[in-house]
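Aim 2, interim progress. The first record below pairs a target sequence with its structure tokens.
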Amino acid sequence: MPHAVVPAAPPRTAPCRSSSRTAGPAKPDSERGTDERAERARRQGVRVGERPRRAPRGEIMSPIEYSAEIAELLGKVRRRPTAGWPWRPGEQVPEGLPVKQSWGWLFAPDGRVLTLVNPRDGICSLPGGSLEPEDDGDPSAALARESAEEAQALIGRPYYLGYLYDRVGSANGGHECARVRMAAALRAVGPSAADPASGRHYRRLLVAPGLAVELLGWGAPGLRQARAAVATAARWLGVPAAANEAIEELPVEGCTVSPGIVYQGAVHPGGGRPRAQG
């Protein structure tokens, strides 16, 4: 099976604007069903379209602006228990340690990242998943394929960030393995559709990396991973180190996010083993 990644309908639309899911003025908290995480997120950012800024001492920053429907979705978010896998930033995966999964921080030009939310159970995730035979051992190819399947997304060239060492091997039949993390530009998304492998139909949000860590429930280790992703994206993709902190849902009909070359699944040198960039 070739590695080319094509969404169900290649997007030829204008650049992304606010989601068509906007549901008018925000409802009171009692009606919106927002929980503590959503409320805390609402108080931490900037208005849509503004650049993020640091608040002078004693000043409260203006709230993040988003639709009532996004507020309702955030109110359903629940975190998975953290696994505690050690993060190995910039280290190559040792020979003999199998790479079983590849997940990606996919960046919009304003520094926000694609974060998926399963509306049925409130679980958030980054795009990515397990390597399949058609990926030929290449984590970049797996990320491109999984991004297309889960989020109908096209991505640019992935950059290797490091790996998580899973000594329990929950993704490898009880044997130790590596879970690779990468960063790439989010080029476009096609019309929203269910993942053909799992049947999950994700909601697709653009959020600041720090807020993504909070939604994912990754804590301090996740923040270290996010910092590595932001540093790589700032260097190689030209995104700002301080992201726009507005929360936006990508249109269900799809859109272009950042025009550019689409990654087509080229295998890294060294038999598909990921290599650090720079």
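The second target in this work package is listed in the same format:
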Amino acid sequence: MYAVRRADLSYTLHEINNEYKPGKPVLVSPRAFCLSPFSDKGIYIGGHDASRKISDDMAWIFEAPLEVALGQTKGRDAELIEKESLRSPRLMEGPLHELRIYSAAEGRHGDLIKRFKDHTDRIFRRHKLEALGYWIPTGGPAKKRRRLVYLLRHESRYDAYRNWVNFSNDREWERVLDKPEFQGLLAKKPESIFLNEKPYSRLREVAIKQPGGIYELRIYAEARGETTALENWFEGQLRPLFSKHGMREIGSWSPFDKPSSGTSFFSLLYHKDREQAEAAWKGLHRDLSSKQEAVNGDVLSTQSDVIFLRALGFSPLK
């Protein structure tokens, strides 16, 4: 809407493209009014407002005769011009997953878990952010034990962007963040990695409903700057040995975003307990024997990053 001031200093309110009704484009925040430079007694009005809104495809511009803009003459409704989306097709493909790791400040781990349990998870669901699991580390140095790890499912990378924007601007979520007990929770910015699930991944079939086991997140780094050799090694040599040694495969992923995290590979396993996990890996390494050592030198840049995890009580995966 915009206001026109009359000679008697009173104002009249007007709407761009006449009164809004369903089917019309939503026009937010007129920002610029410019008389036409073509001597046709017209005016151009443009606007865009990304606050609390998804910011793509939000800019607009309308042309109208000056007497229409001033309310002296009734104007016709403009027709909506359909156009192809400028989004990359890759951003619309899916589904995909998002691995997020939060590091709590000293003494704040419990408050971070409470925020997720009492508020975050519920507000996630309101905005189509589907959490598959919430975990905390079972061991390691105190700093690393203060982490919270969770996995989200998104219909596409664009849906992830849209849903995160809506979540971040949720009024209830803003009130949660204003509570003193939930301020200053994090020691650093959360880590976020978008992941493409491998075709052989078992995540679609997994339904762990009983608590008690442990999860193992492994992040492999490729030595030569690309993941083909690493993925071939994992699928062809490592993965076939999982079931033999009692390891339950939950999921396998390669990064969506490249090149920043494109040389990594992610695997999530499930074990009865830590002792079983250690025994299983010892047996697996014996099977690989000297072949494992040769492959490590060619494929892996460093030792895998391993985090043993316990599911929280409100986690869908127990």
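The chain has two domains: 2-69, 91-311. This observation will shape the mutagenesis plan for the next reporting period.
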